[in-house]
Amino acid sequence: MAKQINVGVIGAGRIGKLHAGNIVKNFPAVTVKAIADINAGGLADWAQSLGIADVYQDYKQILADPAIDAVIICSSTDTHSHITIEAAQAGKHIFCEKPIDYDVKRIHAALEAVKKAGVKFQVGFNRRFDHNFKKVRELIQSGAIGDVQIVKVTSRDPAPPPLEYVKVSGGMFLDMTIHDFDMVRYLTGSEVTEVYANAAVLVDPAIGAAGDVDTALISLKFKNGAIGMIDNCRQAVYGYDQRVEVLGTKGGITVTNDTPTTVVMSTGSAVTADKPKYFFLERYMDSFTEEMKEFFQSIAENTETAVAGIDGLKPVLIGLAAQESYRAGKPVKLEG
Amino acid sequence: MAKQINVGVIGAGRIGKLHAGNIVKNFPAVTVKAIADINAGGLADWAQSLGIADVYQDYKQILADPAIDAVIICSSTDTHSHITIEAAQAGKHIFCEKPIDYDVKRIHAALEAVKKAGVKFQVGFNRRFDHNFKKVRELIQSGAIGDVQIVKVTSRDPAPPPLEYVKVSGGMFLDMTIHDFDMVRYLTGSEVTEVYANAAVLVDPAIGAAGDVDTALISLKFKNGAIGMIDNCRQAVYGYDQRVEVLGTKGGITVTNDTPTTVVMSTGSAVTADKPKYFFLERYMDSFTEEMKEFFQSIAENTETAVAGIDGLKPVLIGLAAQESYRAGKPVKLEG
Amino acid sequence: MAKQINVGVIGAGRIGKLHAGNIVKNFPAVTVKAIADINAGGLADWAQSLGIADVYQDYKQILADPAIDAVIICSSTDTHSHITIEAAQAGKHIFCEKPIDYDVKRIHAALEAVKKAGVKFQVGFNRRFDHNFKKVRELIQSGAIGDVQIVKVTSRDPAPPPLEYVKVSGGMFLDMTIHDFDMVRYLTGSEVTEVYANAAVLVDPAIGAAGDVDTALISLKFKNGAIGMIDNCRQAVYGYDQRVEVLGTKGGITVTNDTPTTVVMSTGSAVTADKPKYFFLERYMDSFTEEMKEFFQSIAENTETAVAGIDGLKPVLIGLAAQESYRAGKPVKLEG
Amino acid sequence: MAKQINVGVIGAGRIGKLHAGNIVKNFPAVTVKAIADINAGGLADWAQSLGIADVYQDYKQILADPAIDAVIICSSTDTHSHITIEAAQAGKHIFCEKPIDYDVKRIHAALEAVKKAGVKFQVGFNRRFDHNFKKVRELIQSGAIGDVQIVKVTSRDPAPPPLEYVKVSGGMFLDMTIHDFDMVRYLTGSEVTEVYANAAVLVDPAIGAAGDVDTALISLKFKNGAIGMIDNCRQAVYGYDQRVEVLGTKGGITVTNDTPTTVVMSTGSAVTADKPKYFFLERYMDSFTEEMKEFFQSIAENTETAVAGIDGLKPVLIGLAAQESYRAGKPVKLEG
Questions:
Q1: Which of A73, A146, A299, B326 is positioned for an S-S bond with A249, CB 3.0–4.6 A?
Q2: Which CATH number fits domain B130-284+314-333: 3.40.50.1820, 3.30.360.10, 3.40.50.1980, 3.90.1170.20?
Q3: Which residue in C266, C268, C275 is closest to A266 by CB distance?
C-alpha cells in the first residue's frame, strides 16, 4: 500500500468509533481524516486523541472533501442506501455496514450507483474474516471435504437487545439472522433457493407483542443441492454461541466457540471451563480489522472487494423470504 | 428379581442373537428358554453354547410353552404387529423391536391386544438407555436448563445400507429417523405437532432411483412450544455421528460422540484424535443390555415399561408425516 | 479356545470376586470350578449364583484338584509368592495379582518355581489392557512418534485408603506407584536405570505419621536414553486421574481421562463437564476382562503371557529404589 | 495515565522492534521518542514509519535525554546489567528484558542501583501476563483449589535455536527454563528450595557437543511444601507446547495450548485439529502488550511493578542450581 489512503467515517456510534480506532491503530498507510455525526457535539476530544483532523455534523462535508478517498458508512441503517448513492456519485470508495437497506429497490439503486461510479464497495459482513470461519471456507474450497451436503449455523446472542431496538430492527431475520444468511452463502459458495422459518417467542413475550420472534430454526435449500439449517436465539444464558458445522461427501467440519482462556478447573463438584467470549465485540474484534485490511487492499491494488454488492443484496432477500415463510407457515422459494 | 423369568426370543438375526447373548450373560435371574427362527437350521450349536433349551422354526411353539413368561420379538418388521397380538393373546409379556409396524391401523390393533391382555409391552428404542442421552433427559427433567427452547439431533450413519435393504426399509424417515423422532420425544417430554422435511439425495443416486432420500434436515414444532431439528445422513465418511444439543431458558446441553479411546497424537503435520465408535453395535452396546434390564424389572416388579405402546406409535406417525411433508414440499401438522 | 479350561480362584475379596464374576460372564470356554478363602463361610450363595462348584477354606484343596488347570491368586499380598510356588509345583498355570511380593528374594523364588514347572504365569498389571494405554503402546511401537524422549504418567486416587491399609500397604511407591512403574516400562519398552523420588505429605498428616508419603513426583531415566516422570497423589478431590503423555522425536501423544458421559452443560455461571470415572473399578473394568482373555489365550495356545515374571519383578525393584531415593534425598541407580 | 510518558528503546533487534511497535500502536499516552542500536544504520525508515524522533547508535544518548522518562532494555543479554545501572543512575524507569544477567553479583549490583535511584524496574517475564496463566494464578490466589500440592509446567519449543545461539545462550536452564522457573514462582506464590535436573541430549547430538542439554525434567520443592515439575524440550515437532497443571487440596487446574482456530475436520482417515500457535511471537503476542501496560501504569500511578527485581534474580538462581544439579547428578538446595 504505497499511496496513503484518506478516509472519512460517517456515523460515530459504537461501530463507527470502533472502525476509526482500528484504522488509526492498525493501518499506518491509512489516515482517518474526518468523522461526521449528526451528534457531532461531544466528539472533539475523542477525534483529537486519534488524530482525526475534521469533525463534521453533516456527512456531505466529507463527501465534498476532495482529499478523501473512501468513506466508512456506519450511520443508522435507514441512511445507508442514500449515503451510498451520494458517496458513489462523489467518487468515493465505500465500506458500508450491513445491511445496505431493508428495501430491495433501494439496495438495487445503491448498487447501481456504485456500478456506474466504478468505485470500490464492500459490505460489513465481518464474520467472513473471522479466523475460524475463514478456515472452514478455505477447507471447503480446497476440496478437503468433497461436495457440501449439509451446512449448519448456530448463532445465539447472550441477551436480547432492548425492546425499543427490537421494534425498529427490521425483525430478527433481517437484524440477526442476516449475518448467518451471509455465512451460509460464504461457506457453501452457493445461493439459497428455498427457506422455511420455524420460529417462536420463547425468550420474552414482549418481543412477540412487538411483532417479532426470538427463537428460530431456519431450513434452507441451496442451488448446488446442499441443504442447511440456521439456529437462532436472542438469548443463550451461557453466552454468545457462534458455531458452524459442514458435512461433505469426503468429511465433516465443526467449529466450536472461542473462549477467553483454555483453563479447566476440576473440583469435588464439577469440571468447569470458560464460557464463550462474551459478545460480538470480544468474539469478532480481529475480524473488524481484517475486513478493513481487505477493503484498503482492494483500493490500493484496484481489485474486487471481498464482500461485493451482491453479498449485500442476497442476505436481505433471504431474510425477507424467511419473514414471509414464517407468516405463511410454509417454505418460500428464491431465485437463487 | 426374586422369581426366575423365562423368555423366548423370536427371530435369530443379528439383533435377536444379540439380545439372547446379552440376556444369558447379564441376567442370572432370566433364562432364555427358547429361540425361534424360520431358518432354524443352523442355530443348534449357537443355542447350545448359550444354554438355550429349545430351538424352533415356528414362533408359535414359543407362544404355546406355558413355562415362557415373555417374548423378545426380533423377527422381520412386517411380522411384529401380528406376533405381538398373538403373544399378548397367549399372555406373554412382550419386548418388541422397533417399529411395531409401518401401518398405523396394525399398530393400534397390536396395542389394543396388549392392553386387553394386560401384559407388559416395551418397544426397542434402545437409545433412551444410552449413558449420554439418559443424562441429558435427567438434566432436563431436573430443571437444570429451565424450559426447553430448541432440541437438535445429529444422527448420521457411517455408510448407507445395501440398496436391497433401502428398498424394503420403509424409507429413511421410518427406518433411520424413527430413532431420532423417539429421541426428541424422550428428551423434550413433549409431542411433535408439526414436521417439515427438507431432504435430498446427496450420497448415492441409486437411493434416489429407489424412491428414497439419503440426507435430511427435519424441522419440528412441539406441543410445549419448543422447536427442533433432526439432521440425518446415510453416510458420514468419518463414522457414526450421534449427538444432541438442547437449549433451555436456563442453560444449554451438548453431547458429543463416544470414541474408542481418548488418545490424541500430535505430529508435525496434524493433531489427530479418534473417530467416533464405528456403528450402532459399538456405540449402543450397553443400551441393549440396559433396555432389557428395565423390561425385566417391569415384569418382576409389575411396573410400567420404560418405552410404552404410545412410544411405539408416535414415531411412526411423525415418520409418516415427514414422508408426506417431503412429498408435498410443505410442513405437515400432527395431533400432538 | 477349543479345550475347556478349569480355574480355581484363591481369595474371595473384592478383586477375587470381580475376576470370578468376569470369567463366568465372559468366557464360555472357561469354568470357575472352585473358590478358596480363609473366610469361606459366607460364600456359598454367591458361589452358587455363579455356578461355582466348590467352595474351600484352604487353597491347597484347589491345588490338589487335578481337574483344575489354572489358579487366579487374589489372596492377601503376603501370600502371593508362596502360593505361586505351591501352585507351580502343583502344575497349575498362574495368574497372580500384583505385587508378587515386596521381598525381592521371594519374588525370585516364585519366578524360579514357575520357570522350573514350565507353567504359564501372568501378573495382574491390568492397566496394560486398558483401551487408552494399549493404543499408546501400539502407536509407539508402530514408530508413529519416533524415538521416545519423555514419558509422563499422572496417577492420582480420588481419596486415600483407610489409615490401617496405608500402614500395611508397603508404602505408596509399592502400593500405588507400582502400577505406574509398570506403565512406563510398558509404554517405553525400556528399563528404568535411575529413580529420584520427590515426595511429601500434603493430603493427610496421619499418613506421614504412619511413615508414608501421599504426594510424589518421581523422576526417571531409562536405558534407551528417555527420561520420565510419574505424578502421584493419594487424593485428587475431582476424582481418579489417570493420564499419560509421551513425547517422541516425531510426535507427541496424550491420553485424557475417561468420563461417564460426554455431556457438557452450559449455564449462566459455568460450562461444566463430567468428572473422571470414579475409581479403578469403573475406570478399568474392561481391562480386568481383557487381561483374563490374554491369560486364557496363552494357556490355550501355549504362548507367552502378556505380563511375564520379569514384569512382576521390575516394578518392585523400582519401587524399592524410589523408597531409598526418598529416604536418602538423592537419585538411586538401578541395573536396568 | 494523564501525563505523557516518553520512552527510549535500547536495542532494535526482534524484541526491541516488537516492543516499540506495540507501544506506538497501543499506548496513545506513551511516546517512543528514541531508539538506540549499535547497528543503527538501517533503522531510519522503520523509525520514521513509527514516528520515532531520534535514532542513536549509542544508548547513552537516550540516557542523556532529559525528556525521556523510561527505557526499554532489549540489547544483548550481556549488556542488561550495566545498562540497567547506568539508566538507574540517569533516573530513568527501567523495563529490562530477561535475564538481567547470568552473573548473580552483577544482578545484585543492578538491583542495588535501581533501589538507590528509586526508579521503577520491571523484568520481561511476559508469560505472567498471558490470559491463560494469569487466570490460573487468580484462581489459586482466590483459594478455589485450596493449598497447592503439585505444579507442573510443560514448555517445549517447536525447533531448537541455531547452534551458534545455543553456544552463547547460557545453557537451556538459563535460556529456556528460566521462563518456567518464573512461572512456578508466579503460580505457587512460593520460592523454590530444591531442584533436581534430569536432563539429556535427545534432539540433536550437536547440542550435546556444545556442552548443553536439549531435553529435561526438572523436579522442584517449594518453601510452602508443594512439589513441582518442569518438562522442557528444545523440539516438539508438533509445535510450541505451553501448558501448566496445578493440583490443590480443593481442586485441580489444567491449561491446554492456544490454537489458531477451533476448527476440527473429520474424514475417513482421521479427526484432525489445529496444532498449537506456532511460537512465542504468535502465542504470547498479547502478553507483550500487557506487560508494557502494567509497566506504564506503575510509572503513572507510582506503584510497584508487576515483575520486581527479586523476580529477575530468583529464576537465575534456580537456573544455576539446575545446572549444578545436572552436573552433579543430585538435587541442589536453594535458600528459598
A1: A146
A2: 3.30.360.10
A3: C275
Query: With an 8 Å Cβ cutoff, are C202 and D147 in contact?
Result: yes
How is chain C split into domains, by residue range? 5-119, 131-279+314-333
Across the interface, whether the CB atoms of B261 and C25 are under 8 A apart is answered: no
Say yes or no for a CB contact (<8 Å) between C267 and A238. Answer: yes
CB contact under 8 A, A198 and B217: no
- Model confidence pLDDT, tens digit, residues D177-204: 999 999 999 999 999 999 999 999 999 9
pLDDT at residue number D1: 41
CATH superfamily, domain A5-119, is: NAD(P)-binding Rossmann-like Domain (3.40.50.720)
Q: Which fold has domain D128-283+314-333?
A: Dihydrodipicolinate Reductase; domain 2 (3.30.360)
Band of the pLDDT at B336, cuts 50, 70, 90? Answer: confident
D274 with B273: Cβ contact below 8 A = no
ipTM above 0.90, yes or no: yes
A158 interaction partners in chain B (CB closer than 8 Å): none
User: Do the domains spanning A5-119 and A131-280+315-333 agree at the CATH topology level?
Assistant: no
- Given CB atoms, is D247 within the 8 Å cutoff of chain C? yes
CB contact under 8 A, D271 and B273: yes
Tens digits of residue pLDDT in A205-235:
999 999 999 999 999 999 999 999 999 999 9
**Residue of C188, A132, D256 whose CA lies nearest to B266:** D256
B-contacting residues in C 168-227 (Cβ below 8 Å) = none
Digit-by-digit pLDDT tens for chain C (336 residues) are: 457 999 999 999 999 999 999 999 999 899 999 999 999 889 999 999 999 999 999 999 999 999 999 999 999 999 999 999 999 999 999 999 999 999 999 999 999 999 999 999 999 999 999 999 999 999 999 999 999 999 999 999 999 999 999 999 899 999 999 999 999 999 999 999 999 999 999 999 999 999 999 999 999 999 999 999 999 999 999 999 999 999 999 999 999 999 999 999 999 999 999 999 999 999 999 999 999 999 999 999 999 999 999 999 999 999 999 999 999 999 999 997
The residue of chain B with its CA nearest to that of A238 is: B251
Give domain A131-280+315-333's CATH number out of 3.40.50.720, 3.30.360.10, 3.10.620.30, 3.40.190.170. 3.30.360.10
* Chain A CB within 8 Å of residue D261 CB: yes
Three-state SS sequence of chain C? CCCCEEEEEECCCHHHHHHHHHHHHHCCCEEEEEEECCCCHHHHHHHHHCCCCEEECCHHHHHCCCCCCEEEECCCHHHHHHHHHHHHHCCCEEEECCCCCCCHHHHHHHHHHHHHHCCCEEECCHHHHCHHHHHHHHHHHCCCCCCEEEEEEEEECCCCCCHHHHHHCCCHHHHCHHHHHHHHHHHHCCCEEEEEEEEECCCCHHHHHCCCCCEEEEEEEECCCCEEEEEEECCCCCCCEEEEEEEECCEEEEECCCCCCCEEEEECCCEEECCCCCCHHHHCHHHHHHHHHHHHHHHHCCCCCCCCHHHHHHHHHHHHHHHHHHHHCCCEECCC
| Interchain contact C150–D (C-beta under 8 A) | yes
B1 pLDDT more than 60: no
Query: What mean pLDDT comes out for the span B317-323?
Result: 98
Top residue of D190, D213, D230, D247 to mutate, by most chain C CBs within 10 Å, is D247
Task: Report the distance separating Cα B250 and Cα B144, nearest Å.
Answer: 7
CATH topology of domain C131-279+314-333: Dihydrodipicolinate Reductase; domain 2 (3.30.360)
Question: Contact partners of B by the rule of 3+ C-beta pairs under 8 A?
Answer: A, C, D
